[in-house]
Amino acid sequence: MIMKSVRIVNKSRHPLPQYSTLCSAGMDLRANLDSPVVLKPFQRALIPTGLFMALPEGYEAQVRPRSGLALKHGVTVLNTPGTIDADYRGEVGVILINLGQENFVVNDGERIAQMVVAKYEQAELVPVDVLDETERGEGGFGHSGVK
């Protein structure tokens, strides 16, 4: 299913992000670097992509980790998912963190994250004095039990 068009400026040396398969939810984002970036264990860095876009109103882009980088190297997106709002016009950047035990080198053109474009709605917050009762009530983390 194709959604509204997203206008995009590509100032990188790489092709535009694209869906790998017909049912892919995300498009790979690539690093746009003049020189490699070394991430030491527990170090983070903002990695540029060279992409600038204008999302339609009512849509956001979510920046998410790539499972292969997370599993093989312990490298993930720090603010997962990172949100790109429809009115943001700056360069798309990816905050990578190395949670692994070895240095990780980010090279130009490397697939570093995936981007999912999603529709959203804004909620109206309505102040009230009391909330309706539910079976769960005020039960917190793990309260719903283990099956």
Query: What integer value in Å does the Rg equal?
Result: 19 Å
CATH topology of the domain at 24-119: Deoxyuridine 5'-Triphosphate Nucleotidohydrolase, Chain A
The strands making up the biggest β-sheet line up spatially as 1-4-8-6
How do the SSEs run, as a string of H and E? EEEEEHEEEEE
Shape: globular
Helix coverage percent of residues? under 10%
Mean pLDDT figure: 93
Individual helix count: 1
Determine the strand fraction and express it as a percent band: 35-45%
Instruction: Please identify which CATH superfamily of the domain at 24-119 we are dealing with.
Output: Deoxyuridine triphosphatase (dUTPase)
CATH architecture of the domain at 24-119: Distorted Sandwich
CATH class of the domain at 24-119: Mainly Beta
| Overall strand count | 10
Give a description of the structure.
The chain has a domain at 24-119: Deoxyuridine triphosphatase (dUTPase) (Deoxyuridine 5'-Triphosphate Nucleotidohydrolase, Chain A), CATH 2.70.40.10. It has one helix and ten strands, in the order βββββαβββββ. The two termini are 36 Å apart. The model has no long low-confidence stretch (mean pLDDT 93). With 147 residues, it is mainly beta.
Summed up, what is this model?
This protein is mainly β. It is built from 1 helix and 10 strands, in the order βββββαβββββ. The protein is globular.
